[in-house]
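[09:14] KT: can someone run the structure on this one? pasting the chain below
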Amino acid sequence: MGSKRKSWREKLADDKGYPKVYPIDDNVSKRWGTGTFVIPAPVEVDGLMRRVGKGRVTTLDEIRRALARRHGATISCPITTGIFAWIAAHAAAEAEAEGRRQITPYWRTLKPKGELNPKYPGGVAALKRRLQAEGHIVIQKGKRLFVQDYQKRLKVLEASEAEKTGKNS
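[09:31] RB: done, structure tokens below
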């Protein structure tokens, strides 16, 4: 008997013991520098993505900075942060397909330099439609799509008061 595949929302809720902060070892210090890195919980990434309101955008780099600040780490792991954003996007699309109206606005989370993420549900065509409906101008550079002047609409993800005082895990 085969096991039932987890839904995207189940994957999002499975924290696997994260967040955890680790020292940056010699193997990756050439790329990441010295200090510590945090592997966040998937719901933390989702929570930051949810903070971005209509007409605003954020980037994976901004999410990583917020996570590092939250956990007192030098950086947030770029690989797991990107994977968890991808899971959050698919969990939101899954919820939307079931008729939910309040979903994580994953289309507002961009790759570095304002690039649309082709791995998000619907691909860049769907992301472009959603972003343009919110007033963003999407431009093409080669085969890739970017939000023009995304920095002017960038949502800086500061730590909440609860996170600053340590009242939020």
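[09:33] KT: thanks! The two ends are 38 Å apart (CA to CA).
[09:34] RB: yep, looked fine to me
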